[in-house]
Amino acid sequence: MAMKIRLARGGSKKRPFYRIVAADSRMPRDGRFIEKLGTYNPLLPKDSEERVKMDLDRIKYWMGHGAQPTDRVSRMLEAAGVIGKKERSNPKKGEPHAKTKERAQEKADKVAAAAEATAAPAEEAATETAE
To answer: Which residue in 66, 59, 48 sits closest to 82, CA to CA?
Structure first.
């Protein structure tokens, strides 16, 4: 049986509230779970103690029995100091999308064309006065 420590969504529409649960990975997200291990309320400020509550002893117990935390839960556990920080690499982070790059290129081309258009009459005027 593949165990997961994951978030189960509760709360009403547009007001999320999550339970941190130990569940069989084959069960639905909000479905049957084995044990409730804590809560997560994303609507509270980040520095609030009520935002993430976890029963760390039980989480360690389940991890000792082979339960794998999901990415979001593992980040919470890293913040709590239960597990070591993982090295994550996201080389595309902050890189603009293709459409944005195209728009920037078009804008640069327009600016260059405008600069050439203003420079050309100035050169013609300079040659006329020299004659």
So the answer is: 59
Q: Which helix (H) or strand (E) element contains residue 82?
A: none
What pTM does this model have? Answer: 0.64
98: its two tokens? 């293709």
User: In this structure, what token pair is assigned to residue 82?
Assistant: 């239960």
For residues 92 and 81, give the distance between their C-alpha atoms in angstroms, rounded to a whole number: 28
Kindly list the strands in the beta sheet with 52-54, ordered across the sheet, starting from the edge strand earlier in the chain.
Answer: 52-54, 35-40, 15-24, 3-12, 68-69
Phi, psi of 9 (to 5 degrees): -80, 140
pLDDT at 120: 67
Give CATH for domain 3-80. Answer: 3.30.1320.10
User: pLDDT tens for residues 65-109?
Assistant: 888 988 888 888 888 777 777 777 777 778 888 898 899 899 988
